[in-house]
């Protein structure tokens, strides 16, 4: 087995036994990036020197532990599971001194002045950061085709998209160009690319992970989460980044109500809800078959399968695509050509006569088509005279969708759905049709409106393209869905 094939736990074990060093593993990943990434296009920046430096530091920590443990010292605490493990970070999460483009020309030259809280935590654990990975502009999209820089290709088929918006993060793990990555999920951006690329991705409960230092898209929905090779690794990364942070008022400490390995949550004691609305028209029959087969396996393993209804699912896309543009229009107002980002002030091509010219020209040139579309929709939805009809109405429907999930979790422990109605589509196939792109969020965005957690894990293939199962839990039940996901992972192997 190559070093780049190993999971976080396998690396940790190897470090402990002195089988290899973090520098060796980091070099193996850097080598793989050099060899592969011209084809895949996952990385926007590779931070080789920084990574090697961090790896050396991690090796010192590991060596210190080894020499202590050889001496038989009883006081030694084990080094963190992520110590020495190479990862990559979506380019809308700030890493001090590195670029943070958010996939936009607007922030092409922006260098992060501080670390996001999740990065502080990774660094404190000794994780090695290999670089920054591609995304749709400001995380708006399902394919990375909206990136201002490049399209990240699907490692399973280079003619297809990697998914989005965290396409670079999912492709990097799938192509073994990072052991794990951090992505962000507003309406599906961790789970959809994880599903397309055949890797595991977790969208945590809203508030479970600090958003401080993440470039905002829609603040009532954005969450940072891990993308990894398997479920166990997702748990490790999630445990490392979760928790309350004084820099993000919406973050909370996770109440430890569902401890992993609690026998109550074994698969044979589970009630699995299957929402009928998620198997209606639009789903690829081959995807449906794979998901139904997995549900059948869970049933054979003793789980009770309950058909449930989430009746307001049909309003989710419309609601989501009012709330997200509204919040995005407010969040993106800061890119005004003065305080942040791309500016036309010094560009002699245009005559800048007044302040409005600075805004109009800078924003006109700095933003791509999708952010512009959302700023226009969002500004309209929030404007006086339309606010009640659009934004306020969307918030009311959001309550109904949330209630659907509350009702469902009175009857079942977890909900199983496909992550996406179809496998990865061809590059360019949907580029001219924003609505067909928006419809890709049909299974991933409703639960976001309710703020509950969900994981996507690979459960099969259609024509060599991976298919993901989505497991949804109630608020702060990450441990429960992770436990269920690892049982399913075993069942489909
Ligand atoms: N596809 C969704 C959107 O474009 C999800 C994006 C996300 O989760 N960041 O809004």
Describe the overall structure:
The protein is α/β, with parallel strands linked by helices. The protein has a domain of 256 residues: Amidase signature (AS) domain (Amidase signature (AS) enzymes). 39% of the residues lie in helices and 14% in strands. The protein has 15 helices and 13 strands. The protein has an eleven-stranded mixed β-sheet, sandwiched between helices. Strands 4-5 form a two-stranded antiparallel ribbon. α5 packs parallel to α6. The longest helix is centred in the last third of the chain and has 24 residues. The chain is globular, with a radius of gyration of 22 Å. The two termini are 19 Å apart. The mean pLDDT is 95. Bound molecules: glutamine. Glutamine binds next to β6.
């Amino acid at each position: 087995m190559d070093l780049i094939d190993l999971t976080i736990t396998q690396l940790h074990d190897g470090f402990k036994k002195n089988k290899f060093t973090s520098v060796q593993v980091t070099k193996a990943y850097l080598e793989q990036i050099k060899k592969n990434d011209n084809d895949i296009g996952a990385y926007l920046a590779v931070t080789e020197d920084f990574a090697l430096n961090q790896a050396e530091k991690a090796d010192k920590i590991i060596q210190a532990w080894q020499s202590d443990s050889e001496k038989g010292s009883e006081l030694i605490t084990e080094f963190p599971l992520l110590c020495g493990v190479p990862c990559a970070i979506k380019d809308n999460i700030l890493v001090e001194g590195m670029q943070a483009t958010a996939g936009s020309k607007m922030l092409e030259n922006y260098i992060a002045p501080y670390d996001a809280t999740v990065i502080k935590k990774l660094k404190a654990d000794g994780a090695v950061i290999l670089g920054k990975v591609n995304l749709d502009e400001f995380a708006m999209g399902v394919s990375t085709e909206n990136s201002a820089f490049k399209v990240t290709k699907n490692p399973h088929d280079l003619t297809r998209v990697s998914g989005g918006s965290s396409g670079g993060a999912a492709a990097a793990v799938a192509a073994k160009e990072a052991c794990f990555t951090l992505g962000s999920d507003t309406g599906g951006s961790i789970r959809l690319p994880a599903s397309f690329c055949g890797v595991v991705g977790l969208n945590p409960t809203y508030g479970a992970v600090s958003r401080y230092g993440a470039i905002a898209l829609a603040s009532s929905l954005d969450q940072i989460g891990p993308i990894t090779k398997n479920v166990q690794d997702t748990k490790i990364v999630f445990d490392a980044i979760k928790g309350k942070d004084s820099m993000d008022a919406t973050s909370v400490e996770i109440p430890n109500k569902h401890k992993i390995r609690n026998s109550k949550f074994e698969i044979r004691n589970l009630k699995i809800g299957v929402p009928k609305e998620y198997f209606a028209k639009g789903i690829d029959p081959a995807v449906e078959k794979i998901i139904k087969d997995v549900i059948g396996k869970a049933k054979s393993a003793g789980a009770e399968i309950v058909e449930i209804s989430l009746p307001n699912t049909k309003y989710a896309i419309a609601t989501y695509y009012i709330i997200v543009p509204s919040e995005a229009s407010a969040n993106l107002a800061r890119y005004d050509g003065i305080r942040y980002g791309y500016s036309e002030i010094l560009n002699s091509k245009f005559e800048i006569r007044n302040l409005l010219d600075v805004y109009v020209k800078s924003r006109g040139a700095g933003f791509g088509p999708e952010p512009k579309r959302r700023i226009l929709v969002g500004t309209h939805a929030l404007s006086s005279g339309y606010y009640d009809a659009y934004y306020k109405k969307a918030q009311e429907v959001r309550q109904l969708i949330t209630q659907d999930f509350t009702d469902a979790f009175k009857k079942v422990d977890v909900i199983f759905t496909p992550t996406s109605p179809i496998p990865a589509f061809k590059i360019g196939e949907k580029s001219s049709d924003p609505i067909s792109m928006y419809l890709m969020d049909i299974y991933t965005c409703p639960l976001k409106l309710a703020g509950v957690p969900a994981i996507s894990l690979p459960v099969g293939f259609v024509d060599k393209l991976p298919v993901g199962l989505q497991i949804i839990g109630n608020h702060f039940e990450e441990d429960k869905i992770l436990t269920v996901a690892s049982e399913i992972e075993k069942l489909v192997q």
